[in-house]
Specification:
Layout (H helix, E strand, L loop, with lengths): L1 E3 H12 L3 E4 L6 H8 L5 E4 L3 H15 L3 E5 L3 H5 L1 H9 L4 E7 L23 H5 L5 E4 L6 H13 L6 E6 H5 L1 E3 L18 H13 L3 E5 L8 H12 L3 E3 L14 E4 L6 H7 L5 E5 L20 E6 L13 E4 L2 H14 L8 H10 L17 H11 L5 E4 L3 H9 L8 E2 L9 H12 L5 E6 H7 L3 H6 L4 E7 L4 H10 L14 H7 L3 E4 L5 H10 L5 E6 L9 H11 L10 H13 L2 H11 L1
Parallel strand pairs: 2-3, 2-4, 4-5, 5-7, 6-7, 9-10, 9-12, 10-11, 12-13, 13-14, 15-16, 15-17, 17-18, 18-20, 19-20
Antiparallel strand pairs: 1-8
Length: about 600
């Protein structure tokens, strides 16, 4: 094609199948928006803040399993993108991040908002994005733009996906180019090569002969053919499956072999089993994160062998010694292991009844608080009603803080693509904005964000973005007028010295209405389910405000221990009130710690 550099960018993105670009225009970026004016395929989504644009692009990539694109003008526009891009980087999501730059002739001269990093105390866009993207570059000539785009899109979508960044000087976007549009979609497939056959055979042998095996499924197991291959292998092995938070739903949590999420805020069933004497553990698409492993608890180390599958070889053996490492796409490797187990003659190790009993004993997604009729509502009860109201097709975006813990521990899901989370960076307000991108990626599915009132106040103005584009997005807001997780830590580790955790609570019903949406309030048992069902039939954005018990805490002792280790705080027992000690004793019992201690005493 012959046209401007900006027009080339737009045509290449059209060829790639991009339908939305999230951002806020600025003077140096207007050439790109002028090119978007002529596009019949790509819609520019005007957000309220560039941070919201990056979160929406990440939500779009997460829900749609395809490239997300965000853009920002030079200087403050680019720096506002950082948290959202970092979230996408940690979540392995393919993003193209476009930033404007001053003209090449002005670099190093102190131009308005200059961010080329050439003297005069100017920041550098490429330096800023270098640690949170797979690739970053400034394109200095218009005739270099096509190749830079193809290179960046290939890097974003191959191997372990991730964001890439192009910095585009104003004259490069306005300059003339004349080159063919080369499709880059052919580079989209992830790594599908077959794993080492000897390693596959060894993994199959270990799993087939294990007495107490377990599978731990992470985010990598949710993609592509991962869920189907995971189900087939688990059923063949009669092997219980736990997940990480980001792998939640990789195996339906209604399945007999499902244990739910493991970790600091996981289910008691998963924590009891995975920390209670597993001999062979198959970890799939997980980094064995701090939260997943109870701060890298030695009890998570299997007694015989750890088999680790990941598309990124750097993850294998990173936190626990690994006997068998398999690099590749989760679906491909799991299918190969299943074929190898078949050649061994399968296994004769029925485990379902054992798992059924364990789940009954540990109140698997059936804790007493989930049936509580007290008010303010218990957050566990809110999750139970949400599960009853939502169809299986719903996308549930999480935010950060205690609201995330309640979703992980108390909301049971059936599909691998049901819970959407950008929890790797743990940026408050991420889900509040990301759900809008998710809805645009999958307009055929209901989209709801479960968040706290602190989360909503971070990026709640993006409700108006949903209004602008007529998007029926739902925000279920757990109201307690505070940063609940901060309060919990201050109570447990700082001798109840509470500070800077409460805030003014606006009327969220009126706020929703002021931003063009519908506001609902649910305060009594049954009202959450009714409000969600009503919101599902709305044609625009809906905010459901739910006041919750401010004293209800997720399991906290493991998190306190993590903070102690990382910050050098005094032991939890030295900083707790009697009531706090009792609460943490209950949490210790729930996490399986009491059972392991008694078991060790009996062995002595």
């Amino acid at each position: 094609m012959k046209g401007t550099g900006a027009q080339l960018v737009v045509r290449c993105l059209e060829q790639e199948g991009v339908e939305h670009i999230f951002g806020v225009p600025g003077g140096h970026l207007l050439a790109l928006y002028d090119a978007l004016y002529d596009s019949d395929y790509i819609k520019a989504i005007l957000t309220k803040h560039e941070g919201g644009a990056a979160f929406m692009a990440a939500g779009y990539a997460l829900a749609g399993d395809r490239l997300g694109v965000c853009c920002a003008t030079v200087g403050p526009g680019a720096t506002n993108l950082v948290s959202g891009v970092a979230c996408a980087y940690m979540a392995s999501l393919p993003l193209l991040v476009l930033t404007a730059q001053v003209g090449t002739g002005s670099l190093g001269r102190g131009a308005l908002q200059e961010a080329g990093g050439i003297g005069l105390r100017t920041p550098s866009h490429t330096a800023i994005f270098s640690s949170i993207t797979k690739h970053t570059e400034m394109v200095l000539r218009s005739d270099m733009l096509g190749e830079a785009l193809r290179r960046s899109l290939r890097i974003a979508q191959t191997g372990r996906p991730g964001p890439v960044h192009l910095d585009l000087p104003a004259d490069v976007m306005r300059g003339t180019v004349d080159e063919p549009i080369v499709p880059v979609g052919q580079y989209r497939p992830r790594l599908h090569c077959l794993p080492d056959p000897d390693a596959v055979k060894e993994a199959a042998r270990l799993l087939a002969h294990a007495h107490t095996p377990a599978i731990l499924a992470g985010a990598g197991a949710r993609r592509g053919q991962g869920p189907a291959a995971l189900l087939a292998l688990a059923e063949m092995l009669e092997c219980p499956v736990a997940t990480t938070l980001l792998g939640k739903g990789a195996l339906s949590e209604h399945h007999q072999l499902a244990l739910g999420p493991v970790g600091l805020y996981g289910t008691r069933a998963a924590n009891e089993y995975l920390r209670g004497g597993v001999d062979v553990l198959l970890a799939v698409g997980t980094s064995l994160h701090e939260f997943t492993t109870h701060v890298w608890d030695p009890a998570m180390r299997p007694s015989q062998a750890l088999i680790h599958i990941d598309i990124d070889p750097e993850q294998i053996g990173r936190n626990y010694a690994t006997e068998v490492g398999l690099v590749g796409d989760a679906g491909v490797v799991l299918s190969a292991i299943r074929d190898a187990v078949t050649l061994l003659g399968g296994v004769q190790r029925p485990k379902e009844q054992l798992i059924v009993r364990l789940k009954e004993q540990t109140e698997y997604f059936d804790e007493p608080a989930m049936h509580s009729s007290t008010t303010p509502l218990k957050p566990q009860r809110v999750m139970a009603e949400l599960e009853q109201a939502l169809p299986d097709s719903a996308m549930i975006f999480t935010d950060i803080g205690n609201s995330l813990a309640w979703v992980e521990r108390n909301l049971r899901v059936s599909r691998a693509d049901q819970v959407m989370s950008l929890a790797g960076l743990a940026a408050m307000g991420s889900g509040v904005a990301a759900v809008i991108g998710g809805k645009l990626a999958r307009p055929d599915r209901p989209a709801i964000c479960v968040c706290g009132d602190g989360d909503l106040q971070m990026h709640g103005m993006e409700i108006a973005t949903a209004t602008s584009y007529g998007l029926p997005v739902i925000w279920l807001v757990l109201e307690n007028g505070m940063l609940g997780m901060i309060k919990d830590v201050q109570v447990s580790s700082y001798r109840n010295r509470r500070i800077a955790h409460t805030f003014f609570q606006p009327d969220l019903v009126k706020l929703a209405e002021a931003l063009g949406g519908i506001g609902l309030r649910a305060v009594a048992p049954g009202e959450v389910r009714a409000a969600v069902e009503a919101a599902l039939s709305a044609t625009g954005p809906v905010v459901i405000a739910v006041p919750i018990d401010p004293d209800e805490m997720p399991p906290t002792k493991p998190r306190m221990l993590a903070i102690e280790r990382s910050m050098g705080l005094p032991p939890v027992s030295e900083s707790l009130s009697l009531g706090g000690i009792r609460a943490l004793w209950t949490m210790f019992h729930e996490s399986g710690g009491l059972r392991r201690w008694l078991s060790r005493r009996r062995r002595r």
